[in-house]
Specification:
This protein has about 450 residues and is α/β, with parallel strands linked by helices. The protein has eleven helices and 22 strands. The longest helix has 23 residues.
Length: about 450
């Protein structure tokens, strides 16, 4: 374990100094995917812990008035009782972190999948592996605003976070608030999901959490980490706390920021596009095209956050558009389409693209040959691949070995902290994960 040196300022925020760490490779694991027709697994066979430095377990939630969930997702509202590890209903102080689902997360008296315990067991393969509990996510971010708004609820959040880390032997908290001041899924009428002070309060929330974890680190003799997932959007980055950018203030309490460098385009858009391009293709005429790429967002974030606190997000999945016009190049790119392709919510995991025959290996063993009537194209400007079938009009934007290598090369040149990807189950054969590990860890 690297030596950690802590120094405390007179202000609310403790200043901590620590030895320079190595590059990080962070993979998310979605807890809910252990159930279903093709369940994901957590084991040495399915997850190569040696190719990772951290795993973010998605997701825990915030309890309020004895319930968690999001009342704005569905009708009736998608809310549930807050439960402990045995499945017993609990009513912790408002703002407390709770399990997302004990059936997925714990043993549940022999009936559960015990995701948390199985993740800890992966440390047998890699003792240096760090485990993070990711709180929130797209569906479960609706309680962050009220939790961050008062010191009492900020304290409840921090105390419950520490209790979780100690109980389940995790190493850090990853906050996935989507998004402060601009909630992704609005609440039902009468509930508060965001307010103009969210970014200021977010800074205070993380400061409170850092204070709690610094003290716990001294007591427990181990390092506790805090990270966040940030939106790849100028609107997210903008905002002030006092006389400085809010993200600058926030970063002081964080170990690093995971930039969600994907979903720039999706089947919700009327035209096809590259959902995780590294650079801009000048032929992309959508109004926000200039900032809808990895380089633009990294460059913008670097104005406010040091490079060694930024982690570049990678997408191990793709999106499919239906009935896209071929266009002048007969490749379907930047052409009008008619919604998404019905393949697991328009998503195409990389392992599905290879396993179902959309992609085949070339002479070098790389998946660069299209199948099932698709042609694989490479966009040199954006450094991104895509597939198109002129017969069906289906267009698929995704990432492959070549695109991942371009991004790892980019982040090394920029001096970034490392790479994060969504998600482990989307790369069941570990094809893309091996590229990241080789490029960043030399494995």
């Amino acid at each position: 374990m690297k030596k950690i040196v802590f120094a405390f300022a007179l202000s609310l925020l403790p200043i901590y100094v620590f030895a320079q760490s190595n590059l990080e490779i962070i993979g998310y694991f979605p807890g809910w995917k252990v159930v279903g027709a093709q369940p994901a697994t957590i084991s040495s066979a399915s997850i190569n812990a040696k190719n990772l430095t951290a795993i973010n377990y998605a997701f825990l939630d915030i309890c309020w008035d004895g319930q968690h969930g999001n009342p704005g997702v569905t009708e009736p509202p998608d809310v549930a009782d807050c439960l402990d590890s045995s499945g017993t209903k609990i009513t912790p102080p408002n703002g407390s972190i709770v399990l997302g689902n004990p059936l997925w997360d714990t043993t549940l008296n022999g009936q559960g999948h015990d995701n948390l315990g199985k993740l800890v067991a992966l440390k047998n393969d890699n003792p240096k592996l760090k485990l993070f509990a990711s709180v929130g996510g797209w569906n479960w971010s609706n309680r962050f605003s009220v939790t961050a708004a008062t010191q009492a609820t900020r304290d409840n959040f921090a105390k419950s976070a520490l209790a979780f880390l100690r109980t389940y032997h995790f190493d850090g908290i990853d906050i996935d608030w989507e998004f402060p001041g601009n909630i992704g899924i609005p609440c039902t009428e009468g509930r508060i999901c965001d307010n103009p002070n969210d970014k200021k309060n977010f800074v205070l929330l993380v400061q409170t959490l850092r204070q709690t974890l610094v003290q716990a680190s001294l007591e427990d003799g181990k390092r506790y980490y805090i990270t966040i997932a940030s939106a790849a959007s100028p609107k997210y980055i903008q905002g002030q706390v006092g006389n400085e950018n809010w993200l600058t203030a926030l970063a002081r309490s964080l170990d690093w920021i995971n930039i969600m460098n994907y979903d720039y385009r999706s089947p919700f858009d009327a035209t096809s596009g590259l959902h995780s391009g590294l650079y801009r293709d000048k032929h992309d005429r959508i109004p926000n095209a200039k900032v809808s790429n990895g380089d633009a967002m990294v460059s913008m974030t670097l104005r406010y956050v040091p490079a060694d606190k930024l982690v570049l997000g990678l997408a191990f999945y793709g999106y499919g558009w239906a009935s896209c016009k071929p266009g002048p190049n007969n490749d379907g790119l930047f052409q009008p389409c008619k919604g998404g392709v019905n393949n697991t919510g328009s998503n195409f995991n990389f392992s599905d693209l290879t396993g179902q025959g959309y992609l085949h290996k070339d002479e070098q063993g790389l998946f660069t040959i299209g199948g099932l009537g698709f042609t694989r194209y490479w966009n040199e400007a954006a450094q991104a691949p895509y597939l198109y079938s002129p017969t069906s009009g289906t267009f698929i934007s995704y990432e492959d070995e070549q695109a991942i290598h371009a991004k790892t090369n980019y982040l090394l040149k920029k001096g970034l902290k490392g790479a994060m990807f969504w998600e482990l189950n989307a790369d069941k054969n570990q094809t893309l994960g091996k590229v990241v590990a080789k490029d960043l860890l030399g494995r």
